[in-house]
TrEMBL record:
Keywords: Endonuclease, Hydrolase, Nuclease. This is Endonuclease. InterPro entries: DNA_glycosylase. The keyword Hydrolase applies. One of its GO terms (biological process) is DNA repair. One of its GO terms (molecular function) is endonuclease activity. It comes from Streptomyces himalayensis subsp. aureolus. It comes from the Bacteria.
Length: 220
């Protein structure tokens, strides 16, 4: 059986990138990329392929809907069309409504700047999760996705290894306790590690591939 460190190395080598990176979001602690990551989390939290959610987030951005003001002011059909181009067809109409309502809430409650939401939580992660879930379309799973992605720039959330990431750890034969996982990951970027674990959770082939590659490297 390969060492856990080698399994993690193979996982990070092949799948070490965040979903925000896949969507073309250059995450920084500034309003636009934080909002774009919130939109991505809303899209990823539905029962739909992650590739369609990522593609739809790109389409919304390319349509100019990069911040809550532009999203709130956009036409509902414009949002539906962008989601459709990304392959987000099953939930496109409902999601288009939620995106508009959510953008208006972010504007009204936090002046379009999610850093104010962070300030309101005052470092309390449970309170932050609750505030996130006030956004239409963003339930517990969506809040987890957002926090997994932004832990690189909101260090109070790090290491954020939610149930889905821990499910991936189990598939890889790794411990599922967050402190143990974080120690095994060493200096790996926590958001990258969490995203890679999620990929192992949603696709069993990822876990098998990484374990097989680690075994082969043990035999070298």
């Amino acid at each position: 059986m390969p060492s856990q460190q080698k399994v993690i190395k193979e996982l990070l080598t092949s799948y070490g990138h965040t979903f925000a990176e896949d969507a073309g979001i250059r995450l920084k602690n500034t309003p636009q990329p934080l909002y774009q990551t919130l939109v991505l989390a809303c899209l990823l939290s539905a029962r739909i392929r992650s590739s369609a959610a990522v593609a739809s987030a790109r389409e919304l951005r390319e349509a100019g809907l990069r911040d809550p003001r532009r999203m709130a002011d956009s036409d509902w059909q414009e949002r539906v069309d962008a989601l459709g181009r990304g392959g987000y067809r099953r939930y496109d109409e409902r999601t288009a409504t939620q995106l508009g309502d959510g953008a208006q809430l972010v504007l009204d409650r936090w002046g379009g700047d999610l850093r104010r939401m962070r300030d309101e939580a005052g470092g309390d992660l449970d309170k932050l999760r609750g505030l996130l879930q006030e956004v239409p379309g963003l339930g517990p799973a969506g809040a987890d996705i957002f926090l997994r992605e932004v832990q690189a720039v909101w260090p109070e959330a790090s290491p954020y290894l939610d149930a889905k990431a821990r499910e991936g750890a189990k598939r890889l034969g790794l411990p599922d306790a967050p402190p143990k996982l974080a120690r095994l990951a060493g200096d790996a970027e926590p958001a990258v590690f969490a995203a890679a674990l999620v990929r192992a959770a949603v696709d069993k082939n990822v876990a098998e591939e990484c374990k097989r590659a680690a075994e082969e490297s043990d035999g070298d």
